[in-house]
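Fold this sequence, please.
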Amino acid sequence: MKYLIIALSMSLSVTAKEFKNFKDTYKLSKSKRSPKKLRSLYYAVSKNSEKDIGALINSFVKETRPNRFVGTSGHKTAQDYIVSYIESNVRKNNTSLKTVKFVPDIEYAKELFRKDLAASKDKLSAVNLKKWQRLTNERIQQVDGLKSTNGYNIVWEKKGIKNPNEVIVVGAHYDTAAYDLKNFKVVNKGRQPGADNNASGVVAALSLINILAELDLQKTVRVVFFDYGENGFLGSYDYVKNLNLEKDIRVYSYVELVMLGYDTLTQDKEQKLGNMKLYYSPASSGLHKAEKSIAQRFYGKSSEGTFRVDFKVSPYDFVYGDNTSFQKFNIPSVVFTQNWESDSNATRIHTPADHVNSLNIKTLHHATNNIAMSIASWALDL
């Protein structure tokens, strides 16, 4: 039930009119591009403003209405938006950008759904088992209908100057899905803005690109916008299969950015703001030790700043993101996300209620800068 619980050609219209609001909003002078200390990096990262974060997520969600379901016009617009934003806003020195078409492995997704249900049978009552079986069948039918719909991963890379074969992969999925959990049905039409899940991750990734593009990195960072994230993680599954064929690189870690905008005080069990999570695999996983070390390194470097978000490092069997594809191929993976134990947005995601007004933009801003400190400090050898 792990996957089930959470589960629960037009041209781009934005171009110059929308992007003029972001053009040149993040630029560093030549003297600031090679920080030697964390405090200098903190200065560079801090130039990424809350105003720009808010404008960007509003723009992305607005332009991709009513939803980003795979194969829809909003889904295609999301692809165009991401590419156009990077081409219009990001310094191109030592960078590359490509869109990679793939044929989704539908049978893999269907088997994933079946295994998930089978693993949960002993935990469900007879009534609930019947409901989840019905939803599983609907999800299988939905993904079966996408057999002829190609997926598109968007890959941005900045090569390291000193150690280009040392790589971190950062990812965020851009598609959406909707479910009616009252009636245990898949929703194939209608409004699903997907602000938290996962426009927040997309915006954090775009902002990270803005920052990294301005820095003289020593090691390589790839930022990938995954397709089919809501349909068996097929975009990341295809990507990591091909990544495994690249024999001349060493992947330090995969870093998942998902649901980074939800943060409340009144609904939070701890009654705190800014208590987010950086998850790594539990002790039962063979990747536990490596992922714990990576998460602790990221936390230590990011805490040098004074951002109003604390990504508490926690072991957790996080099966709701593209990290699962990388872990399947034995690549250490960590997840920057909301606090799922204390302040989860589970009732809004995959529904029309997942809109920008439900998010805490200040938290999204500070979370993005915190993540940038973590990734950039590694890539700069700080």
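The CA atoms of residues 113 and 136 lie 6 Å apart. The chain is about 40% helix and 15% strand.
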